[in-house]
From TrEMBL:
Entry protein name: Lipid metabolism-like protein
Gene Ontology molecular function terms on file: CoA-transferase activity
Organism: Caballeronia novacaledonica
Source lineage: Bacteria, Pseudomonadati, Pseudomonadota, Betaproteobacteria, Burkholderiales
SUPFAM superfamilies attached to this UniProt entry: CoA-transferase family III (CaiB/BaiF)
InterPro entries: CoA-transferase_III_domain (IPR050483), CoA-Trfase_fam_III (IPR003673), CoA-Trfase_III_dom3_sf (IPR044855), CoA-Trfase_III_dom_1_sf (IPR023606)
PANTHER family tied to this protein: SUCCINATE--HYDROXYMETHYLGLUTARATE COA-TRANSFERASE
Keywords of the record: Transferase
Length: 412
């Protein structure tokens, strides 16, 4: 079957995305990529905060900035934009009517922020008992911090990630460092997508919707993974180790003649082959290094020995040698080199879409590969309010005259 004619896995699902910035929009984009009809509800005139988070801006056909920021474009593909003023009673009424037709609502207002408009979960579940209502906040709906605003950077610090990221105390450049992308927001968006689909599966069995309470801080703590387990089980607070791994050696970056490479040895067999590749087979027989627990114990000695050898060849030379020996090894790429990589190109991780304000625009592809219901790139990230008329007509059967009255009154 022609992929362009196939429906997405979530075709028929209707989602109202009232969220802004990244965590909520990321979940909405993923649902949209999988085939859901995601309606992005935005403030008239200004829209999502990230629309103003530039430069860089998408360039128009004339080469001039269009006013569409790269940040906004990264998280809003495949959606349709509808502008509604939630501060007006008529706007609130429109949302309630849309909720009657919707399966899912995503929002990231402060706790209680939508109650003043009658758009909180308790109010909307009366309108549509089957609604899956996903709330994303910094600290959750309960607890002493619930009323606080939360941002990704704050959560990376409060949630422990920055205590693990950066150079070790006593080394050059020591100190906590955040991850270079808003990772907590992204992970929260992924958890939200999983939770929404779980709630929909539950609804299939019970015919009841439910409220999803997702907190950025909770997600960040959950994603500490083995580091949290190391503390809870071992009782030792892990610290910053730069690019090293707390439980595996060698598993970090090494200098080469022209830059850096990563060697990621996952077992003793790989280590023995790594030693052969480095021209030091005796290290693989050394009782200090032959097994991983001993390598962890003698980490400093082994890493110093390896760092004496790795600068003797270029990164590409070492990668060729290590690959031939079956040792996981790779470069530390800048983003331009990521998209130039032959494997990344073969996986088509960069896509091009036509945009109404530009000739084409590049985007990062969705990494999910489904054999029977592949991701379809149906809509570019929408311009503000681009679909207001068509959605109000299709979902609510509002006539052109009624829509124009709403527009003249500033409701849409």
């Amino acid at each position: 079957m022609n992929p362009s004619l196939q429906e997405g896995a979530l075709a028929g699902l209707r989602v109202l995305d009232l969220s802004r910035v990244l965590a909520g929009p990321w979940a909405g984009q993923l649902l949209a990529d999988l085939g859901a009809d995601v309606i992005k509800i935005e403030r008239p005139r200004t829209g999502d905060d990230t629309r103003a988070w530039g430069p860089p801006w998408l360039a128009g056909a004339d080469g001039e900035p269009t006013g569409e920021s790269a940040y906004y474009l990264a998280a809003n593909r495949n959606k349709r934009s509808v502008t509604i003023d939630l501060g007006q009673p008529e706007g609130q009424a429109l949302i309630r009517r849309l909720v009657e037709k919707a399966d899912v609502l995503i929002e990231n207002f402060k706790v209680g922020g939508l109650a003043q408009y009658g758009l909180d979960y308790a109010s909307l579940i009366e309108v549509n008992p089957r609604l899956v209502y996903c709330s994303i906040t910094g600290f959750g709906q309960t607890g002493p911090y619930a009323a606080r605003a939360g941002y990704d950077f704050l959560m990376q610090g409060m949630g422990g990630l920055m205590s693990l990221t950066g150079r070790a105390d006593g080394s050059a450049g020591e100190g906590p460092v955040k991850v270079g992308v808003a990772l907590t927001d992204i992970m929260t968006g992924l958890y939200a997508t999983v939770a929404i689909q779980a709630a929909l599966a539950h609804r299939e069995r019970t015919d009841k919707g439910q409220h999803i309470d997702l907190a950025l801080l909770d997600v960040q703590i959950a994603c500490l993974a083995n580091q949290a387990a190391n503390y809870l089980i071992g009782g030792v607070v892990p610290g910053r180790m730069g690019n090293a791994h707390p439980s595996i050696v060698p598993y970090e970056d090494f200098p080469t003649a022209d830059g850096y490479m990563i060697i990621a040895v996952g077992n003793d067999g790989q280590f023995a082959r790594c030693c052969e590749a480095l021209g030091k087979p005796e290290w693989g027989r050394d009782e200090r290094f032959s097994r991983n627990p001993q390598r962890v114990e003698h980490r400093a000695t082994l890493i110093a020995l390896m760092r004496d050898v790795t600068p003797t060849r270029t990164t590409s030379e070492w990668i060729g040698i290590m690959e031939a020996a079956g040792v996981p090894c790779g470069p530390v790429n800048t983003i331009d080199k990521v998209f130039a990589d032959e494997h990344v190109r073969s996986r088509e991780m960069r896509i091009e879409m036509a945009h109404p304000l530009s000739q084409t625009m590049p985007l990062v592809a969705n990494p999910i590969r489904l054999s029977e219901s592949p991701v379809q790139y149906r809509h570019v990230p929408p311009t503000l309010g681009a679909h207001t008329d068509e959605v109000l007509d299709a979902w609510l059967d509002l006539s052109g005259a009624k829509v124009e009255t709403l527009r003249s009154n500033g409701v849409i």
